[in-house]
Amino acid sequence: MTTNRTFTMIKPDAVAEGHTGAITKMIEEAGFRIVAIKKTLLTPERAGEFYAVHSERPFYNDLRNYMSSGAIVPMILEKENAVADFRTLIGATNPAQAADGTIRKLFAKSIEANAIHGSDSDENAQIEGSFFFAGTEQF
Ligand code: IDP
Predict the structure, then answer these.
(1) Closest residue (by CA) to atom 8 of ligand 1?
(2) Could you tell me if 104 and 114 are in contact, meaning their C-beta atoms sit under 8 angstroms apart?
(3) How far, in Å, CA of 77 to CA of 82, rounded?
(4) Which of 14, 23, 25, 135 counts the highest number of beta carbons within 10 A?
(5) ipTM value of the model?
(6) Containing structural domain, residue 75
(7) Which atom of ligand 1 lies at the shortest distance from residue 120's CA?
(8) What pTM value is reported for the model?
(9) Exposed e or buried b per residue across 42-66, where buried means at least 16 C-beta atoms within 10 angstroms of its C-beta
């Protein structure tokens, strides 16, 4: 089912460096409506749960620690073709390969500390949004 929604979170490096406002501005200027937003902290356990799909990867433990190292800003976003358009806006996982003008090109520090998450399917957008937000928090 296509929902026109995606899920994102600004990751600890970008929040700590004060890029939340600039990134949120880029997201809104690209035509996304913010349906839900908050600032919160993941425990290593919750971070591991969010990235459970990567549990066999060599970077999994580092990723859990990184994602629980500081505040994050999760959001649910709405726009036609949201999932694909948002992946284009954030750029490649590795900022060295991210296109000019993308959020990761502008703000990411490394392949791990890459500033922002974007869901890779409508199904995952729904699952990931529900991981952080109750239905009553989505407007
Ligand atoms: P994506 O976030 O672009 O969808 P995924 O492959 O789903 O990329 O990886 C999830 C996250 O895990 C990445 O955003 C990044 O923070 C981290 N990650 C991915 N590959 C590596 C790696 O090779 N080394 C360290 N961290 C990685």
Answers:
(1) 93
(2) yes
(3) 7
(4) 14
(5) 0.98
(6) 5-137
(7) 4
(8) 0.97
(9) beeebbbebbeeeeeeeebeebbeb
CATH of the domain at 15: 3.30.70.141
Question: Based on the structure, what is the number of domains in the chain?
Answer: 1
Cα of 136 from ligand 1 centre, angstroms: 30
Q: Which residue among 50, 117, 119, 133 is the active-site one?
A: 117
Protein residue closest via CA to atom 15 of ligand 1? 112
Distance CA(123)–CA(102), nearest Å, equals: 24
Which of residues 1 and 99 earns the better pLDDT score?
99
Contact 17, 55 (CB under 8 A): no
pLDDT classification of 1: cutoffs 50, 70, 90: low
117 is catalytic: yes
Which H or E element spans position 98?
A: none
User: Shortest CA distance to 1 belongs to which of 117, 128, 121?
Assistant: 121
Distance CA 123, CA 139 (A): 19
Say yes or no: CB of residue 60 within 6 Å of ligand 1: no
